[in-house]
């Protein structure tokens, strides 16, 4: 738990689980999948917990497996299911992905504040987005490396 970038900031018992931290995130959904379906998603999949585990438990891989399992059990919120379906379709079409990125960066520059920070953007309640960059990472890479 002390190596986890999520739990280092949120604290051990912030997710309403008896066993805190990454270990709890793989144990609690087994005990009550419906109640703890969000736990495996509170993870960046960075693998730091697996790296420091003295008995080499593949925690981050188990968290990924839990995500698939919970999705198959239809325990994800409707909005997340729709968002994941749309994101999957976007990731399979590189040109559309690049176009969506350009439109998103432009929208962040021109949209009035209330259209970005509203009740449909729960992250925006406590966080400000950084200014939209003029180029995507891919465009910067092409400029610097000529590919
Ligand atoms: S893989 Fe997930 S649970 Fe493990 S340290 Fe990284 S963020 Fe935390």
Please give a structural write-up:
With 147 residues, the protein is mainly alpha-helical. The chain has two domains: 7-72, no CATH class; 78-145, no CATH class. Helices cover 53% and strands 0% of the residues. The chain is built from eight helices and no strands. The protein has helices at 7-10, 21-31, 48-52, 59-72, 78-91, 94-110, 113-116, 137-145. Helix 2 (21-31) packs parallel to helix 4 (59-72). The radius of gyration is 19 Å and the shape is globular. The N and C termini lie far apart (41 Å). The relative contact order is 0.08. Iron/sulfur cluster is lined by residues 3-6, 22, 43-49, 59-60, 63.
Order of helices and strands: HHHHHHHH
- What average pLDDT do the residues reach? 92
* Count of helical stretches: 8
- What is the tally of beta strands? 0
Amino-to-carboxy terminus distance: 41 Å
* Tally of structural domains: 2
Bound molecules: iron/sulfur cluster
Radius of gyration using CA atoms only: 19 Å
Overall body shape: globular
Unreliable segments of 5+ consecutive residues: none
How much helicity do the residues have?
40-55%
- SSE class: mainly alpha
Biggest sheet descriptor: none
Quick rundown:
This protein is mainly α and 147 residues long. The chain is 53% helix and 0% strand. The protein folds into two domains: 7-72, no CATH class; 78-145, no CATH class.
């Amino acid at each position: 738990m002390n190596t986890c970038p999520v739990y280092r900031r949120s604290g051990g018992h912030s997710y309403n689980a008896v066993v805190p931290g990454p270990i709890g995130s793989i144990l609690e959904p087994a005990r009550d999948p419906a109640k703890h379906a969000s736990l495996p998603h509170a993870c960046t999949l960075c693998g730091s917990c697996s790296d420091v585990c003295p008995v080499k438990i593949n925690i981050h891989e188990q968290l990924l497996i839990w995500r698939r399992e919970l999705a198959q059990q239809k325990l994800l919120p409707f909005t997340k299911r729709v968002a994941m379906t749309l994101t999957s379709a976007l990731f399979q079409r590189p040109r559309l992905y690049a176009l969506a990125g350009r439109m998103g960066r432009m929208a962040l520059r021109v949209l009035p504040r209330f259209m970005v920070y509203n009740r449909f953007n729960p992250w925006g309640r406590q966080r400000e987005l950084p200014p939209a960059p003029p180029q995507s990472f891919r465009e910067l890479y092409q400029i610097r490396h000529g590919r």
